[in-house]
Amino acid sequence: SRDSSSRGDKSVTIQTPGEPLLDAESTRGDDRDDNWGETTTVVTGTSEHSISNEDLTRVTKDLEESTPLECKRFIGPALGGCLSFFALITPLAFLILPQVLWRDALKPCGTPCEGLYVSLAFKLLVLLISSWALFLRPPRATLPRFFVFRCLLMVLVFLFVASYWLFYGVRVLEPKEEDYRGIVEYAASLVDALLFIQYLALVLLEVRHLQPAFCLKVVRSTDGASKFYNVGHLSIQRAAVWVLDRYYNDFSVYNPAVVNLPKSILSKKMTGFKVYSLDENTTNNSTGQSRAMIAAAARRRDNSHNEYYYEEAEMERRIRKRKARLVVAVEEAFTHIKRLHEDEAAASPKHPREVMDPREAAQAIFAPMARAMQKYLRTTRQQAFHSMESILTHLQFCITHNMTPKAFLERYLTPGPTMQYQQQSGRGRQWTLVSEEPVTSGLRQGLVFSLRRLDFSLVVTVTPLPFLRLGEEFIDPKSHKFVMRLQSETSV
Amino acid sequence: MSFVPGQPVTAVVQRIEIQKLRQGENLILGFSIGGGIDQDPGQNPFSEDKSDKGIYVTRITPGGPAEVAGLRIGDKIMQVNGWDMTMVTHDQARKKLTKKREDVVRLLITRKSLEEAVKHSKGSHPRQ
């Protein structure tokens, strides 16, 4: 319901008996019949438990961060770990089982076997170390669908080892094969094949996407902050994880308090008039009405750009003024303390100074700058990101590391990347991947997907990198010759 | 051909009348000029005095109206249709030569060989 005191508009008062017919504020009381329902202000009983929009979002954020640690995160790596353990144990089992079961019947084998033992041992060691280095890492993200390459490789390894066991069972265990050298060679061939599978895994999982092939443009939907990245051939979900890794470092933190245009400027266009259709035959043509309204509003002389410009200039001036006050206050505050060296303490026993640890020193100098800091944060709308406690901690940190006031202020003068404001909770961040194509398909030209969070989203557009045709031109170093330029010459 | 600032310039000049040739939309004369008070006089290959900022003829199209009329490369243009060319900018000189309404330009040009010819003739035929 609109406020009845908007300037220049018709206002209406609801009459109660006993009051004068026309209030001092209302104009043209005879028009009341026309629009008395439109501009009345009705006061309903407000409930005592009201939640603002900000509170709502904060509650949902807290909820998501307090969900219990998902076990789903660890299923993939656990499965992979079991499989690789199984695969590594297999050659040893192949060697040990005949020794244990039918040791006496085995033909002894001499030096070739020993060579095979040594090579087997080293290959297993290499497999172990490289598996640890490459694959035993805590997972950084859970993907919505299966990671195709990883599944492929796990299936491959499983089938491989299973078929080796099958052949082993049929050819060696059953007939109790006596040729031990053959068994050792069999085990060695398995280890060779495992090494090659690991090479395949390395190439598919780690190397293939290193060569850049696509350019991704990432735009944040709320304030238009954008970046361009080069990636290689990835599936959509892997590219999404890649982009999010970079997002936390490169994009300045999302500040919901900074909106594009204050509503006071925009909404001035919409007040003014209503459109009435006097023709009784027409059906309710609402689009026609709104279009007529917009057209009429556009034709009116519109000064909102002017107001926007002046408001921007004013805001900038205010920020600069507060920033100047803050810088001066911090500089002054830092002059109050200095680091105590050990020889100084011993050298002046006559004037004992009060010795403080960093925390106390920070608290001592925080008081004079607190007010300037608070006002500055409020003007730049950053007060939600920095609590007094965090500022004190940062001050203590800066004092401990001998930083100048400028280094201390670096954190507050520019909005830093999102990473700077993360609290280290183990729950992780929830992002939703929105895409029209199945997320395991690879990147290709013209693909668009978006990564949505509660209050904003990142829209990613894919374009392929251009093919470069590099030509060659040879310049003889002796061919660099110069002459003086003649004056300008005009032909008539 | 050098001048002393403040003193009137004296030179032996030849009168040349060039008929402009119509080529499509333009009237052309068939030569190129260089020099002017806004140009660097040191780069002028045709002037004797390297501080001379006058307008010189730098190129002549063979068979063009200028060659036919007797203009030669290296000539210094002193006047065009009565307009002085010794103290003008390059652009002003161009404008005076390329007026669309004029079909004919009458130039007063000077060159070193003219001086020598006069001296020679003076020497051989002393005047009273």
Automatic annotation (TrEMBL), chain A:
InterPro entries in the record: VANGL
Protein localization: Cell membrane
Annotated region described as Disordered, given as residue ranges: 1-37
The keyword Chaperone belongs to this UniProt entry's keyword annotation: no
Keyword Ribosomal protein included in the entry's annotation: no
Biased composition regions of type Basic and acidic residues, renumbered to the chain: 1-10, 25-35
Transmembrane segments: 74-96, 116-135, 147-167, 187-207
Keywords: Cell membrane, Membrane, Transmembrane, Transmembrane helix
Domain of life: Eukaryota
Location (main, coarse): membrane
Topological relation to the membrane, as annotated: Multi-pass membrane protein
One cellular-component annotation, GO: plasma membrane
Record-stated family: Belongs to the Vang family.
Entry protein name: Vang-like protein
Phylogenetic lineage: Eukaryota, Metazoa, Chordata, Craniata, Vertebrata
Automatic annotation (TrEMBL), chain B:
InterPro entries in alphabetical order: PDZ, PDZ_sf, Synaptic_Scaffolding_LAP-MAGUK
GO cellular component: adherens junction; basolateral plasma membrane; cytoplasm; nucleus; postsynaptic density; postsynaptic membrane
Organism taxonomic ancestry: Eukaryota, Metazoa, Chordata, Craniata, Vertebrata
Name of this chain's protein: Tax1-binding protein 3
Record flagged with keyword Glycoprotein: no
Domain called PDZ: residue spans: 15-112
Gene3D superfamilies named among the record's database cross-references: 2.30.42.10
TM region(s), chain numbering: none
Primary location group: membrane
